[in-house]
């Protein structure tokens, strides 16, 4: 009799262990979220079938709509049969955030910390000897050249002039470079060479043997702006150098751009917007942040243009649904146009990340003119059911009709609007599967 009782007890204990161990699976399987954000007065119900039950902090069972009238957080507990706890649900009632969707093409001008040394090479000096002054001095690809003999380096074309102005008097030049988090001073002896330019003119030139890159300019799309504060967001992904590292911005601007032509996108060959901008006289805003979810800052002067007469609500990530939507972007000149797209997949994200949904272009005209999503469309806003739900971030290289988009909710937080949340670091876009649009 004792053995039978012991077996029953062991069986029950084993069953309890199995139930407790599989709670996370069942919670996920029935679609119970850990946290939900709602606007004040927004209807919210969570239909749970028996034996699942949900109770508020006072132990009162919730059978209809949740209380969303006043701002603040409320904790609800989900249980099995009303007594076996499964998980808790936090409902945050937050202020409604409304913004103007963008869509206009912008030129992005970054006054970065310096110039990226992308490659080291060899040069032939006057004695016919092959040298690599930069490599010999200990410079590395990826170092950021900050200054030469105290003179800041901002533009690649001026570095050669600076070197040749200083080298005749100084045999060794002191270069200030940034490597990771460290700032180093490295002494380099330039090689004196004999160079012939494209016009056939020859002269003595001092060379370091480096290839410099200025990650300072490009064309993208404004995603949104907030009428009360002037805060804006654009691109939807970080700006990186040729080595895939985020560019550190000391000061940057966005300017108005005009699209001159389109390079058609096809399988394996992403298309591109070809635009031009005029620089400082067309400044729209000042950039103060380059994050994994885009660039952010504040508009200057008059507000940017929009296709909308009034601001629209920003949707929470959990409100986005698969189905038709509109993407706003420019394909010719400066005219913002709406194009039909389909949200084909919504990814369940509980934390901010770049790839929140998969979007497919269904607009026949856009497919005919661009082939789908092309580079320069990064940041193009997506509107669904009268709400800003996301922005285009990447194009699939092997299928340019599709691409990824970020949830607008995450970008709004990153812009400093709504509830501020910490945005965890994410890897920059990989060129193996998709490209920044």
Walkthrough of the structure:
This protein has 437 residues and is mainly beta. The protein folds into 3 domains: 29-94, Immunoglobulin-like (Sandwich); 98-109 and 216-436, Beta Barrel (Thrombin, subunit H); 122-208, Pdz3 Domain (Roll), CATH 2.30.42. It contains 6 helices and 30 strands. The strands form 6 sheets. A 6-stranded antiparallel β-barrel has the order 6-17-18-22-21-19. Strands 7, 10, 11, 12, 13 and 16 form a 6-stranded antiparallel β-sheet that branches. Strand 19 (249-263) and strand 20 (272-277) form a beta hairpin. Mean pLDDT is 81; it is low at 20-30 and 420-433.
Compact overview of the structure:
This protein is mostly beta strands and 437 residues long. It has helices at 2-21, 23-29, 133-137, 156-166, 364-370, 408-414, and strands at residues 35-38, 52-55, 72-80, 84-93, 98-101, 105-112, 115-120, 123-124, 130-131, 144-148, 151-152, 173-179, 182-188, 191-196, 202-207, 210-213, 217-225, 231-234, 249-263, 272-277, 283-291, 294-299, 312-313, 323-329, 337-346, 357-361, 381-384, 387-396, 399-407, 434-436. The strands form six sheets. The protein has a six-stranded antiparallel beta barrel. Strands 7, 10, 11, 12, 13 and 16 form a six-stranded antiparallel sheet that branches. Strands 24-25-26-29-28-27 form a six-stranded antiparallel beta barrel.
């Amino acid at each position: 009799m004792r053995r039978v009782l012991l077996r029953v007890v062991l069986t029950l204990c084993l069953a309890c262990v199995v139930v407790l161990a599989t709670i996370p699976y069942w919670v996920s399987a029935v679609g119970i979220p850990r946290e939900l954000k709602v606007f004040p007065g927004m209807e919210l119900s969570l239909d749970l079938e028996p034996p699942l039950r949900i109770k508020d902090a006072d132990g009162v069972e919730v059978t209809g709509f949740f209380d969303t009238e006043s701002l603040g957080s409320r904790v609800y507990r989900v249980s099995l049969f009303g007594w076996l706890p499964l998980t808790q649900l936090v409902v945050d009632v937050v202020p409604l955030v409304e913004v103007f969707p963008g869509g206009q093409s912008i030129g992005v001008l970054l006054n970065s910390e310096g110039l990226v040394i992308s490659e080291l090479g060899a040069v032939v000096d006057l004695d016919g000897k092959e040298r690599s002054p930069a490599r010999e001095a200990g410079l590395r690809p990826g170092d950021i050249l900050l200054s030469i003999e105290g003179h800041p380096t901002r533009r690649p074309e001026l570095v050669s002039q600076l070197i040749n102005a200083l080298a005749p008097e100084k045999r060794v030049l002191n270069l200030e470079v940034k490597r990771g988090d460290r700032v180093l001073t490295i002494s380099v002896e330039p090689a004196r060479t004999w160079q012939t330019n494209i016009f056939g003119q020859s002269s003595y030139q001092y060379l370091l043997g480096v290839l410099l890159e200025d990650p300072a300019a490009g064309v993208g799309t404004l995603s949104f702006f907030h009428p009360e504060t002037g805060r804006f967001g654009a691109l939807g992904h970080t700006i990186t150098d040729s080595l895939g590292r985020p560019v550190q911005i000391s000061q940057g601007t966005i300017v108005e751009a005009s699209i001159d032509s389109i390079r058609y996108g096809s399988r394996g060959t992403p298309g591109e917007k070809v635009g031009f901008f005029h620089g400082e006289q067309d400044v729209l805003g000042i950039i103060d942040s380059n994050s994994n979810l885009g660039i952010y800052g504040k508009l200057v002067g008059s507000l940017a243009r929009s296709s909308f007469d009034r601001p629209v609500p920003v949707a929470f990530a959990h409100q986005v649904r698969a189905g038709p939507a509109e993407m706003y972007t420019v394909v010719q000149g400066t005219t913002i146009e709406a194009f039909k797209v389909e949200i084909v997949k919504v990814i369940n994200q509980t934390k901010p990340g770049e790839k929140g949904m998969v979007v497919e272009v269904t607009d026949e005209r856009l497919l005919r003119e661009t082939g789908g999503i092309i580079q320069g469309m990064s940041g193009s806003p997506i509107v669904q059911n009268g709400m800003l739900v996301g922005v285009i971030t990447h194009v699939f290289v092997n299928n340019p009709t599709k691409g990824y988009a970020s949830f607008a909710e995450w970008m709004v937080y990153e812009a400093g609007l709504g509830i501020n949340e910490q945005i965890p670091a994410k890897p920059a876009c990989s060129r193996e599967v998709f490209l920044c649009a």
